[in-house]
Amino acid sequence: MRAIGQTRAGIVKMFICEGALIGLIGGLLGLSVGVLLVWGINQTGGILVPAPPGMSSGYTALIKLSSEACLYAFVTAWMASTLSSFYPAWLASRIDIIKALHYT
């Protein structure tokens, strides 16, 4: 990218934006799959839990989702992806132009 005129800061911004976009899409997909799984488990009657020691019968556990837990999971996935793009962005901005052109 530097060979076609992109600045180091521009390369860093591009990598971080890509990391944020990947985190956004991944967080939304993960949240959607998780909500669908919870809905499916609850629709089929929940999870059968064996009887604990000292009791004669088990019970059925249903999963309860809260909006806070969903928001926390989404923000955590998004921030992890965004923050993990800083080091590769820094490395990409430091590549020597001549070496980059030589290997392509």
Automatic annotation (TrEMBL):
One of its GO terms (biological process) is lipoprotein localization to outer membrane. It is a multi-pass membrane protein. InterPro entries: ABC3_permease_C, Lipoprotein-release_system. It comes from the Bacteria. Keywords: Cell membrane, Membrane, Plasmid, Transmembrane, Transmembrane helix. One of its GO terms (cellular component) is plasma membrane protein complex. Its main location: membrane. The keyword Ribosomal protein does not apply. Pfam families: FtsX (PF02687). It is found in: Cell membrane. Residues 1-96 form the ABC3 transporter permease C-terminal domain. The chain crosses the membrane at residues 21-41, 71-92. PANTHER family: LIPOPROTEIN-RELEASING SYSTEM TRANSMEMBRANE PROTEIN LOLE (PTHR30489). Belongs to the ABC-4 integral membrane protein family. LolC/E subfamily. This is ABC3 transporter permease C-terminal domain-containing protein. It comes from Haematospirillum jordaniae.
